[in-house]
Fold this protein.
Amino acid sequence: MKKIDLVAIDIDGTLLSNQQTVPENNIKAIRKAVAEGKKVVIASGRPLSGILPWLNIIGVPISDDQFVIAFNGALIQTTSGKIIAKNPVTYQDYLDIQKFADNRQAYFQIESTDGSHTIDRFVPNEAQMENYLVNSPLFIHDKMPEEVELIKPIINGSKRKLDSLQQNLPLDLKTNLDVVRGAWYNLEFMSKKATKGSGLQKISEFLNIDLNSSMAIGDQGNDLSMFEKSGISVAMGNASKDIQNKADFVTKNNNEAGVGYAISKFVI
C-alpha cells in the first residue's frame, strides 16, 4: 500500500454531511492523521472565509505551514492567509461571461478575496445560499469595478437552468476557461491555470512531497483534476457514477463519514 503524506479533501458533499455538519468519524480520522504529521488540505470552491470554520472543527492548525486550495485552485493559501499562488480570470473573460449570462437571463457574480460582486439587482435564492455558506458579503455595482480581483466568476441558479446553460456554452468560453460544477446550484468559470489539481501539485512541490504520496477525496466534477494528480483518488459514495468510475476507490457516502473511512483505510 502507498504511503500517504498529503490528503486533499473537498468540503460540500464530501467532508460535510447533507446537514452541513462534519460526521464524528471524519473528525477523529483527520485529527489522528494531523497528529501523525500528515498534511490535510481542504480543497474547495469556497474562499478561505468559508473554509476556516471547518478547519477549527477538524483540527487543522491555523499557521504558515498548513495550506488550503481555495476558489477551486484560483487561490492557494496558508491557513493563516498568506497567498502562495493566484490565478484569476481577465477582465475580458469577465465581460464575455457577463454577456453570456445577460443573454440567457442568468444571475452572475464574481467571488473575490473581499467578498462577492455583481451588477444584477435580483439575487436568487441559490446565490444567497452560496454567499451565506462561504461567509461572503455581497456588493452590488452599476458597473463591475476593474480593481475587483476576478478570482471566481460564478452563475447561480436552479439545477435545471444550469444544466441548460452548461450544455449551450459559447465556444469561446469553453476554449478560454475551465467551466465546472462545484454544486448543483453553481456554474463556475475558472482560469485554465486554476484547478484543484494544479493547487494540489503546487502544494506538493512547496512541501517537497511526491504527488504519488497524496490522496484526493471528492464528489464533483471540479474534483476530477485532483484525481488525475493524486496517488490515490477517492470518490464519495454519494458521487455520480461518472465521478465514481474515474476514482481508484469509492468510499462511503458523506452522511456515513466516507472521508474518515478512506483516511482510516489508506492514511492512518
Observations:
- The CA atoms of residues 16 and 22 lie 5 Å apart.
